[in-house]
Amino acid sequence: MKTVDAQGKMCPMPLIMTKKALSEISENETLEILIDNETSVKNVSRFLEEHNMGVAIEKQGNVFRLRVNKTGIIPEETRAEDFCETPMPVSSDYVIAVQKNKLGQGSDELGELLIKGFINTLPEIDNKPETLVFLNSGIFLALKGSPVIDSLSRLENEGTKILVCGTCLDYYQKKGELGVGIVSNMYDILNVLSHAAKVLYP
Fold first, then answer.
1. In this structure, which CATH number among 3.40.50.2000, 3.40.1400.10, 3.40.50.300, 3.30.110.40 belongs to the domain 2-83?
2. CA triple 73-78-80, angle to 5 deg
3. How do residues 121-180 score in pLDDT, each as one tens digit?
4. Could you give the residue range(s) of every CATH 3.30.110.40 domain in the chain?
């Protein structure tokens, strides 16, 4: 049985090594592939299965052993890279700009429930926003007594910056009721939005 040791190698190398090894063995011969990352295991498995070769996977410690019985020919023009899927990089370089104290269009009551659920869920996700910006009626969510004030305080304590529009606080006469974050101006808010990798507007 021929063995391909692809430990420590990232896509597309395990796929290329597997394709090359299959071309070197005979019909019905077994190939063993050693891989130490789950992404490459999925890629190689898909590559084999799409060419009608069943694969058995066994994990020993941090190493996956894939065994495949060669039951056909992989065309020479098949590009291993086409089967290479890599995990999306996780980036926290995004900003959420909350422009109102409701989420979506339609029922105000439903919108208030939705924005409450949206913000109360943020502390539970791994990829938390870098900054939260509150504008217009969105500033009511950052006031003392807000139904999401505890979640916003938790986010701030964990490193998320919270900017609250000072002009908006003045307009609604709520500057003395700010419960979380810092009073900001349009220059700083625009600077944050323009430099973010992504801005979400719930």
1. 3.30.110.40
2. 110
3. 999 988 899 999 999 999 999 999 999 999 999 999 999 999 999 999 999 999 999 999
4. 2-83
Hey, which residues does 143 pair with through a beta bridge?
Answer: 178
89, 90, 94, 96: CA torsion to nearest 10: 130
Query: Which residue among the candidates 11, 84, 165, 168 is catalytic per the annotation?
Result: 11
The CATH code of the domain at 94-200 is 3.40.1260.10
Number of other residues whose CB lies within 10 A of the CB of residue 13: 14
Q: Is 165 a catalytic residue?
A: no
173: left (phi over 0), alpha (psi -120 to 50) or beta: left
- The 10s digit of each residue's pLDDT in 58-80 is 999 989 999 999 987 888 788 87
Nearest to 136 by CA among 97, 109, 108: 97
d(CA 177, CA 19): 65
Whether the model clears a pTM of 0.70, i.e. scores above it, the answer is: no
Specify whether the CB–CB gap between 182 and 162 falls below 8 A: yes
